[in-house]
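Hi R.,

Here's the chain you asked about this morning:
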Amino acid sequence: MSAPPAWAPGPSRPRPAGDAVDVWRADLDAAGDEVAAPLSDDERERAARFVRERDGARWAAAHGILRALLGRYLDADPRALRFVAGEHGKPALSDAQGGAALRFNLSHSAGVALYALAAGREVGVDVELPHRPLDALALAQRVFGADEARRLEPLDAPAREREFLRLWTRHEALVKCQGTGIARYLRSGVGRPAPWVLELDAPAPGAAAALALDGPPCELRCFDWRG
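And the predicted structure, written out as tokens:
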């Protein structure tokens, strides 16, 4: 695939497909309070612990939409969904509720959320907005090594930040796909196909986003969440 598809209105009754991965985009600030209705008591308590009320509202909206999406794919009540954590903390559906058949991942930055869903293949997604100052060179040196830091150094500040965010989202999507961290994956993944990593069409002005899928490339479908 030479370029990711543009964002399009999503189907009201989506279905997982073995030859496709779906990525959904949501505007958390426009979602409305009702999207948090499916949250569990534990999720509501976690949202309430945020120091800033807007951060808690965004977290609640992001996870309420996740439940709604999974409910649509599985023809299940979003309130009844139960999640389990993998060995390294990656959330998944329990096997009794379709966890073996439908894998998912969530990322949100400020008011933008992305959701990736795939049938039977691990998936990771990451989105980052330039919403706070960062020392791109120092972070690149620490995370990506001296060569990448030197490559970023001659860029002007806006271009350097854009390129760092592009690198960062690819890195995070891969880590989240494997659920183990890159170093552990490299040790355990000898002989396995490398995950498919793809940069996504910017989900918001200035944003960077990437998708990682365990295994070879497949069809990518990009949808907008409309409630």
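The mean pLDDT is 89.

Let me know if you need anything else.
M.
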